[in-house]
Amino acid sequence: MSRKKTKSPLMIQPVQAGFPSPAEHYIEKMLDLNEYLASHPEATYYVRVAGDSMIDAGIRPGDVLCVDRSLDFFDGAIVIASVDGEFTVKYLRKKGEQIYLQAANRKYKPIFFGAEQDVRCWGVVTGLVRKFNYSAKRQTIEQTASIPERPPVQPVAFRIGDGRRRQRYEQDLSGEGKGKA
Fold it and tell me: Which of 54, 83, 130, 139 has the fewest Cβ atoms within 10 Å of its own Cβ atom?
C-alpha cells in the first residue's frame, strides 16, 4: 500500500487553549502527518477506535490510532492486542510475573491471560488523530441563540462630598431633579 505524502502548514506560534493571544502569522514548516506520527513508517499502521474502554486515557470512539509494530512493549504502554482473535486497545500491565491488559475506564475489568488463550500484541500506540464530529444539523449562532432583550443599563453616578459620605444622583440621570448633598 503506497501512501500519498500530503503536507500541511504547522504554525510556529502555539494556539492558546485558555485566553486567546494575538494572532501570529508565522509558519514553522509544512507538516506531514505521516512523518509527524510515524517514526517507523514501514512498521506503522492506523486503526479506528470503537468503544469507550480507553476514554480516561483520552482515546474516544472514532479516533484513529497510530500504531508502531517496531517498538518494544513495556509496562504502561497502550497497545493493540488480540485476545482469542478479538482486537482491543488497552494498557499493557505487568504485576510480578503476570502480564495483563487494563482498560482506562472503570466499567471494564482487567483482562488476565491464561496459558490456553491466544494473546498477541500488534504494536504500541504512538499517537492519535481526532476529527471533530460536528453534526450535519449544525446551525449558525444567530439561528440558535436566544438572547433576551434587556432594557439599557443606566449608570449610577456617585458624588463624593467632603469625604464622609457618597450620594447617588439617580434623579440626575433620569432628569427628574437633583439629589441633595
Answer: 139
d(CA 177, CA 44): 80
At 1, which amino acid appears?
Answer: M
CA torsion sign for 10, 15, 20, 26 is negative
End-to-end C-alpha distance for the chain, whole angstroms: 87
Domains of the chain: 41-129 (2.10.109.10)
Per-residue pLDDT tens digits for 36-90: 888 898 899 999 999 999 999 999 999 999 999 999 999 999 999 999 889 999 9
Amino acid at 40: H
Q: What's the CA gap between 39 and 66, in Å, rounded?
A: 10
Residue type, 169: Y
Q: Exposed/middle/buried for 96, CB within 10 Å: 0-12, 13-18, 19+? A: exposed
Query: Quick one: pLDDT at residue 142?
Result: 58
164 falls in which pLDDT band (50, 70, 90)? very low
| Contact between 124 and 68 (Cβ < 8 Å) | yes
Instruction: List the catalytic residues.
Output: 53, 90
